[in-house]
Amino acid sequence: MNPITYAPQDLVVATCDNIDIRFAGVTLENAPSTVGIGAGEPSIQFYLNGVRGQETMARDSQFQQDLQEWAERRKTAGRDSNENLSKMPGVVVFERITTQVTDDLGTEYRRAGGQVAGGGTEWDATWFYLPAPPLNARSLRFDFSVDGQSTGKHCEVSL
Question: CA 131, CA 109: separation in Å to the nearest integer?
Answer without folding.
Answer: 6
